[in-house]
Design goal:
By secondary structure, the chain is mostly beta strands. It contains 1 helix and 6 strands. This is Single-stranded DNA-binding protein.
Length: 158
């Protein structure tokens, strides 16, 4: 398929809105992405134009977004870019840019996060398996083992 996949880094501009529907859970929020550049005349970083995207998340990603994404947090969003143009009565045409998110995460370059794996309701409880013993047995542990004993020397041929 010819889809435009993007990866954008920005700040969450609106509180995520979570909805349950027949198709499954969904969440959306606005993402502000501001370009920064080095201004040689001022010898300082300067903010450029800010682009706003509506980020859409579905299924488990929507549940996780609603649980841990808040306004002002720096996030990284990867997904499919969808640009729409509309004309309404009496208004000039306008365009909006949406991202159908595949992955969303906090930008660890600007802060810390604590990851917790989401519990799946339909998954059976994991059976605890004992940790294998990776230690090499010491010589005293194997002295009684017949496999470690030396084989007798062959009898000389006459």
């Amino acid at each position: 398929m010819n889809e435009t996949i993007v990866c954008v880094v920005g700040n969450v501009a609106t509180q995520p809105v979570y909805r349950e529907s027949a198709a499954g859970p969904s969440a959306r929020f606005r993402l502000a992405v501001t370009a920064r550049y080095w201004d040689r005349e001022k010898s300082a970083w300067t903010d450029g134009h800010t682009n706003f995207f509506t980020v859409w998340a579905n299924r488990q990603l929507a549940v996780n977004v609603a649980a841990c994404v808040e306004v002002g947090q720096p996030v990284v969003v990867q997904g499919r870019l969808k640009v729409r143009t509309e004309t309404r009565e009496g208004q000039q045409p306008w365009a909006s840019a949406d991202i159908d998110a595949v992955a969303i995460g906090h930008d660890l370059g600007r802060g810390t996060a604590l990851f917790q794996r989401a519990a799946r309701a339909d998954a059976p409880a994991a059976v605890a398996r004992p940790e294998p013993n990776w230690e090499t047995p010491s010589r005293t542990d194997t002295e009684g083992d017949p496999a470690d004993q030396q084989a007798p020397e062959p009898a000389p041929v006459t």
